[in-house]
Amino acid sequence: MEWKRAKQIVSTPSSDVEVQFNGVSVWIDKVHNDGKTATVHLRGPWEERTEVGIADLQEVTH
């Protein structure tokens, strides 16, 4: 995923865009200003957050 697209997804609160990291659906919480990383957490009841490379995120289109 590109940094610009990740920022668009985060800035649209009602966005129902599915994003995956290593094949698992995640929410993007924050896109970092370094242009390379973002903080994400798993979709679902877990709130554990982790920092990942934006290039490793994939937008799922149906």
Main-sheet strand order equals: 4-3-2-1-5
Main sheet summary: 5 strands, antiparallel
Q: What's the rounded overall pLDDT mean?
A: 90
Q: Approximately how much beta-strand content do the residues carry? A: 35-45%
CATH architecture: Roll
How does the helix and strand content classify structurally? mainly beta
Could you name the CATH class? Mainly Beta
Instruction: Say how many strands there are.
Output: 5
The CATH topology corresponds to SH3 type barrels
Q: What Rg is obtained from the alpha carbons, in whole angstroms?
A: 10 Å
Which residues sit in consecutive blocks of at least 5 with pLDDT less than 50? none
Task: Return the domain count.
Answer: 1
What's the order of the H and E elements?
HEEEEE
Estimated helix fraction: 10-25%
What is the helix tally? 1
The CA-CA distance between the termini, in Å, is: 16 Å
Overall shape: globular
What does this protein look like?
By secondary structure, the protein is mainly β. It has a single domain, classed as Roll (SH3 type barrels). It is built from one helix and five strands; from the N terminus they run H-E-E-E-E-E. The chain has one helix at 3-11; strands at residues 18-21, 24-31, 37-42, 49-53, 57-60. It has a five-stranded antiparallel beta sheet. The protein is globular, with a radius of gyration of 10 Å. The two termini are 16 Å apart. The mean pLDDT is 90.
SSE diagram, text form:
Elements: H1 3-11, E1 18-21, E2 24-31, E3 37-42, E4 49-53, E5 57-60
Antiparallel strand pairs: 1-2, 1-5, 2-3, 3-4
